[in-house]
Every structure is written in structure tokens, then in C-alpha cells.
Structure prediction request, 381 residues.
Amino acid sequence: MKLEEGGQATEIGWEIYRLGRTEDTMQINALTGSVTGSTAAAPRDDAPTPPATPAVSRSTYDAKNSTSPKGGFGDLARKDDQAATGDKAIDAAHDNAGIVVDFYKEVLGRNSIDGKGMQIKSVVHYGKAYNNAYWDGSKMTYGDGDGKFFIPLSLGLDVVGHEMTHGVTEHTSGLAYRGQSGALNESWSDVFGELIEQWSENKGGWGTLQAATGADWLIGEDVMTPGIAGDALRSMKAPGTAYSGDTQPADMAHYKNTSSDNGGVHTNSGIPNKAAYEAGIKIGSDKLAKIWYAANTTFLKSNATFADAAAATIAAAVQLYGEGDVSAAVSDAWKGVGVIAGAKPSPMAPHDPYVAGASARPAEGSMFPSDYKGTFAGLLG
Ligand SMILES: [Ca+2]
Ligand SMILES: [Ca+2]
Ligand SMILES: [Zn+2]
Prediction:
């Protein structure tokens, strides 16, 4: 909902009615979780105490190098605020998961992956020399890497943020994991993996544009190829240059029409990644996070195309910051990569049809909320 302030909608948020006290209301900013206003009635002795939001529970398991660990998870190695185990991969998975939960709560007002306090489960030491990490709908799983291409993947905060953001996407837009919607799903995970890393390196804050312009915008740089300096799995700043075999396109003119990798979800994600980077260095990482998050929770549908993502992020920018420099920077970013007409026009590649069941939870609702009255369409030209 929008909160009216001086006749102008300024924030999106929730209005909370306290238990048993319908005369009390409180406005909470949906993005920061901060209380923006309240009306309180006189205290009442018999009023029930509203439950405090419990801390999100974290459990990290040791698969002991099995691909079929005991009970599906392996042994519980560390829970909640328990002390470090001394096992680097387990401790990094546990600590980094906590940072990701904190980021979503403090920056975006989201209570865990599902928005309802979902317990965070991580499985570490999965398989032998397993060079990957993934989200499967209920938990994160991390391999140890073979020591040559990867070290234990949980050591990368952007990797952990990437995997957990797949969970957030599943519970919000439900972007179907193939074709352009799948590349957007991948890109949103990269964007938040990187933003969470920036936020954490700035000790839970942003130095306005400092974080955006001073960051490397690389994904997986801390865990990839310990023997090679300066490379990464993906570069948002310069897609296609992260490592010697990087084939990511940086604009629509180089979009890869392929049936492998679910239609190139890990390659074509370079295009929206580059758009996010270009927007981020102009508007700052804080606004980038809030706009891209609002696009995922409010505007994107499961079968979104890149052009839909452009429209969604522009709409979110307008909703959060009004029409102006911020929304124009977002629009310019998508024009720059050729997704919408402008600086580098190029034909749109056809979008794969939506495949029912490809997404765990197809999003409901429409591309734009019915109460949206902005004029973002004019910004697309
Ligand atoms: Ca990074
Ligand atoms: Ca390296
Ligand atoms: Zn991914």
C-alpha cells in the first residue's frame, strides 16, 4: 500500500494493527522496516503483548563429502548463535547466511527468504570436489570445489547471497528458470549477491555512491581459481571479461539464442547485470537494491522478458523516488544495453514461452499494480 503524506504518496509500507488494540496503528516502511508513524491509544492493562519478531533460525549441516547425506542434510554442525566450529566452509556458510538475512531485514524489511521468517538451512561439504552451489527450494548446498577452479563456495558472500536470492525470487516474482525470465532470475541473484557484499564491506551501510563506484562488481571472485588473481565467475561491470572463457554478452546485439543452460540463463544474464551496474554507479547501491527488490516483489511476473524487467525497474524507481534523475538513470541503463530503444537499439530476441511448472511458484497478479498511476511508459521511448 501507499502511505499518504501531505497528499503525496511517498512510501510503500504496511499499516499494522496491534493485536487486540484496533485503536492503535503503526506505519512501517516496507523497504526499511522502520516505523514511520503511529497512533497510540492509552495503555490498557489487559492488552496482550504483541510477539516480537523472532530471530531467523539458521542451521548449517555437514554432508561429509557425500552427495546423499544422512537424512538429506548430513550432521547438524552449527545452529543459530552457536560459536564457530573451526571448519572454515561450515562457518562461512553459517555466518554469510546470517549476513544475508540481516541485509534483507535491515535494508529491505524482508523477514528471511520467504518473508515469513523461514528457517535458513545450509548444507556444506556436499560431494567430493564439487564445483558448484545451488538453491533447491528449501536449502542451500555448497561444494568444496576441487581446489583448482574453486575453493569451498560458501566462502564467497556474493555466492551465498546469490543462492539465497534465488529463494527470495521463488517466493516473490517466481521468475521461470528458462530463457529471458531465467536469465533475469540469475541476474537478480548476481545483483543482490554483489550488493550484499558491498553492504557488508561497508559494515552494514553504504557510502552513498561510494559503494557503487568503488566496488568491483565481480561475482565469485573470492572462491574462484585460487591460483589466478583478478578473475571471477561473472563481471557485472564488463560481462564477458570475468575469466578467459567468459562468453557473457553485455548487450542485446550479442544475445545468445541457445537451448543449452535452460536457454542461456547464465550467459544472457550478463545483459541485465550490465544494466544493473550502469544504474547502480549513477544512483548508488542503496537505491539500486530498493528498486531492484521492489521490481521483484511488486512488478515482475514469472514469465517476464528483459523488456518487462526494464519496465518493472523503471516503474519501481518512479514509485519509490518519483519521476526524475533516478528513474531516468534506470531507463538509460536499459537503453545502454539495447533492451529498450535508445542509445543502442537492436531487435529484441524472441522470448521463450512460459513453461508451466518451470517455476516452483508462478507469480500471481499483473505486471503493474492496479493502483499504479505513473507514466513510466513515456520513459521507455
Ligand atoms: Ca563480488
Ligand atoms: Ca581467482
Ligand atoms: Zn544462480
The first strand starts at residue 2 and ends at 5. The domain at 179-380 is CATH 1.10.390.10 (Neutral Protease; domain 2).
